[in-house]
Structures are given as C-alpha cells and as structure tokens.
C-alpha cells in the first residue's frame, strides 16, 4: 500500500519579487531508500537570492529556497544503511542525479547533466523540489552526509554549499598543498571558508580584496598571512607572479586579467563565484606562463562527506549570524548589499511556526 504524502510547512516566494511568506505544501512519504529529517538550521546562499528573484530565468513558483540544511533523522526507509533515527545529518545543493552517467560513476554527481537541485528542481517523480526553509525534508540517503559530533550545527550548515564549493576545486586542482601560496579573491561566505581550509592545509594564504576594509579581519581573525588590495596598482605590480593558485569567490562582475597575472607560471585560478555578467578574458594572460583558468560548482557526495570530516578534524566552521524565519526577507536584502559576516543561517526549528 502506497504511503500518503507528508504535510510540510515553510516560507516560500510566489513571484520574482522574491518576497518570502508562509507556505504549506507536501513532501513525499519516506521511501525505502530515503531518510526524513527534522530541519534545525538552514543557511542563506547567494544562489537563493538569485533563484527567488528569477535572475537566471529558471524560477518555478512557488519556491521554497535553502540548500544548506542540517537536521536530525526522524524516519528511515527499510533499505537505509548509512543512517538511523537521531543522527545529525546535512543536505547540500543537490538531492538527486541520474546515477548512471560517467560523472555519477566517478562520484561527481554535481556534474551530472540530470542533477536535481534541492530547491527549484524537478525530482524523478516529476514533483518540484522544495528547500530547507521548511520544517522537514525527505531525501535519498545517498544525498545526505553525517555531521561530526564536535561541530555546532548552526555553524556547519553553510559548509554544505559554501564549504564544499571551495574545498572540492581546491582538492582537485592542487590548491591544497602545504607550503604553496594561495590567493583568495573576495572575503564573503565562500572566501572566508577558503581561507580557513587553506590554513588547515598548511598553505600561505593571501586575501585579495578591492579595499582595506577587511584587512584586519582577514589577518587577525581568519588567520590569513597577508592582504592584497586589488585596486592598488603598486601592490598588484609587486605581487605579479607570486601565487601558485587563486580561488576567486566573487559573485559580481570584476576584472580577472590582473588576477591571472598574480599567478606563477603554470599557476591555476579557479572561479567559484557566479557573476550575472560575462567576465572578460584576454587570452594573453593565459598564454603567457601557461596559466590555467577553470571553474568549480559545489562537489560530489564523496567530496562533501570528506569536506565535513576534514572540517570536524580541524574544527572549521563558518562565521554566521543566526536569524529567525521572520527576519529572512530582511536578511536577503542585507545579503544583497553584502551586509553579513559571513553567512546568514535561519534557526528553523525554533522560529518556524504554523501560527
């Protein structure tokens, strides 16, 4: 006998204004391979901002955003092996993939052409996926990860997107070698975690920003070794050819040619921000010195679990501002202005009510 859908409640956007309001909907019943979570916290990502406002032209309304989800397991399907009721679990940017393509077989589900996003996606059964600004969620166990006991959940939630978005390309493009010099462009939700991972790897880390506003924060609080002001021609000239790798986390349009020149010969720059406008790439910046420019988009499930375990081992968490669900629209306005150090996290369990 087929189980009926489960009633759920959250906050969703109904149009491109992006304004979130209470929204009742349903989740599928816990399937044989599923775990059901009570959601405790959910981070707010720039992708949520772009999605609810239909900046990328793919919005499906009503939309419940949120893909930096932590919670506790309240039900498991009969085939589930990884989890039990009561476990602390995280869910990130995706909740499904085809499972049979080359990317999936190599554990890069994030590169699957049929990857299903946690919010604003279409699941295998044709239903819309609703994200973590809600009281509960059902997910195939393959797309959930264990959270180490020593990590505070509210500070761990952003790692499920921001964390793996920088960890995975740093790992796969060799920007994790002790003693190497890493440049981190932008000190926001992604950048501040990249600094922490870089230092945990034993790298020399330089934060690159357009102004000195975050210099003290970068060096004294986050542990960066140096700070480079990209709008200062003298500083940029001095730094040419000094970095082994750069991870660029900026989500606004910005010139990348001066950044590429900071790389040593055969150095690599990885883009993980997603500006709305195309970036300009003078080919000479790559040709000279054999430099490489690549991109990264979250990580596969193997990398996600590995990243969380690495964070647990090194006590790495995101710096967060915890807010209630009724503050979420204000938080999104502040996020759009860059007014957060460094990630908003919604306290779902304690503030989401149906009343």
Automatic annotation (TrEMBL):
One of its GO terms (molecular function) is cinnamyl-alcohol dehydrogenase activity. Its EC number is 1.1.1.195. CDD domains: CAD1. GO terms for biological process: lignin biosynthetic process. SMART domains: PKS_ER. PROSITE patterns: ADH_ZINC. Keywords: Lignin biosynthesis, Metal-binding, Oxidoreductase, Zinc. Its cofactor is Zn(2+). Homodimer. This is cinnamyl-alcohol dehydrogenase. It comes from Ensete ventricosum (Abyssinian banana).
């Amino acid at each position: 006998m087929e189980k009926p859908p489960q009633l759920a409640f959250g906050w969703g956007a109904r149009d491109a204004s992006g304004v979130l309001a209470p929204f009742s909907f349903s989740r599928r019943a816990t399937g044989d391979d599923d775990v059901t979570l009570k959601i405790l916290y959910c981070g707010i990502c720039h992708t949520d901002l772009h999605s609810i406002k239909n900046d990328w032209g793919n919005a499906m309304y009503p939309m419940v955003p949120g893909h930096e989800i932590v919670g506790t397991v309240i039900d498991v399907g009969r085939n589930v092996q990884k989890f039990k009721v009561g476990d602390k679990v995280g869910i990130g940017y995706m909740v499904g993939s085809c499972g049979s393509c080359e990317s999936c077989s190599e554990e890069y589900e994030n590169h699957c052409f049929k990857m299903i996003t946690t919010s604003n996606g279409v699941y295998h059964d044709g239903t819309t996926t609703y994200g973590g600004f809600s009281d509960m969620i059902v997910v195939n166990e393959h797309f959930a990860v264990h959270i180490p006991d020593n990590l505070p959940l509210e500070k761990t939630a952003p790692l499920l997107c921001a964390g793996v978005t920088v960890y995975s390309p740093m790992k796969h493009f060799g920007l994790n070698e002790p003693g190497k010099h890493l440049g981190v462009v932008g000190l926001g939700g992604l950048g501040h975690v990249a600094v922490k991972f870089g230092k945990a790897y034993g790298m020399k880390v330089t934060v690159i920003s357009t102004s000195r506003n975050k210099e003290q924060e970068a060096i004294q609080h986050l542990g960066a070794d140096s700070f480079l002001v990209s709008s200062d021609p003298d500083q940029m000239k001095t730094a040419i050819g000094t970095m082994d790798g750069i991870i660029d986390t900026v989500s606004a349009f910005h010139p990348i040619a001066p950044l590429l020149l900071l790389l040593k010969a055969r150095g690599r720059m990885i883009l993980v921000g997603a500006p709305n406008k195309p970036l300009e790439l003078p080919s000479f910046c790559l040709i000279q010195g054999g430099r490489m420019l690549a991109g990264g988009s979250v990580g596969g499930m193997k990398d996600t679990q590995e990243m969380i375990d690495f964070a647990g081992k090194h006590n790495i968490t995101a710096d967060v501002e915890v807010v209630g669900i009724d503050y979420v629209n204000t938080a999104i306005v502040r996020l759009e202005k860059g007014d957060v150090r460094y990630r908003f996290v919604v306290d779902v369990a304690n503030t989401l009510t149906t009343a």
